[in-house]
Specification:
296 residues, Jelly Rolls, globular
Length: 296
Amino acid sequence: MLLQPVETADTITPAIFKKQYYEPGKPVVIKSIARHWPAYHKWTWDYFKEVAGDKRVGIYNNNKSDAYTPVNKADDYTTFGAYIDMIRKGPAGWRIFLFNIFDHAPQLIHDFEWPEDLMKGFVKRFPMLFVGGATSVTHLHFDMDLSHIMHTQFVGKKKVLLFPYEEQYKLYRKPYEVLSLADFSHYYKHKDTPDYEKFPALKLAKGYEVTLEHGDTLFMPAGYWHHMEYIESGFAMSLRALQQGMGGKMKGAWNLIGMRNIDTLLKKTVPVWWDDLKKEKAMTAAQKAMQEAKTY
């Protein structure tokens, strides 16, 4: 992989953000956005247990999905408080994603501000919490709705790997899914991860990496692939903003309504055939991307 660090800004003006990052679709970490939020100091494990500890949540392990796995199906269920107790004790490869804690504790909505000076179109019904124990992994994928994301890390550190949407074929994207065939787990620790012999096009994939810490806000442009690993148990919040153009909104709607339903139907009816076909097409597309890259 051809990686470079994500640029970091302590503060940023709306004009610079728009010109250098939003319009060209380039990620950036902004350190000042969350510092003045009440959530910066207020949101702790104990506080979350107090306001939503009794709520039932779906939790996910580190296994990648297979031919039979429905999209976003939880691997187990527990209460939010019991989950917090588990991951505070030490490494625990379990995570929660797309948890709308604000439905259960609406007062939390007053603990942060929407950064509308930087961009418009925030979907204010759906601020989402992402929680993970140390060693838990969010495998490489892109968000199906193709929204722009402001992802603010609170407790803990997290390693993030990013690729532009256009790198999808070098990343061995599975057709009709938002996932990569390759496993990037612990890529920063092991030189043979991911498996370059099996997935040689990954050597040509151009991307970014960054480690997020308390208070860091990562801007992920629409369609960006991201792989996340929790170095320490922690949580983050994502604020989503729709693309301004109709084309991006339509593509996101197709992914949610058309693509996902087709994939779910075929997983239920002909799972092995469908999975084998997708793998074959992903490998073929990657080979073509490698050949095209060598001609330039």
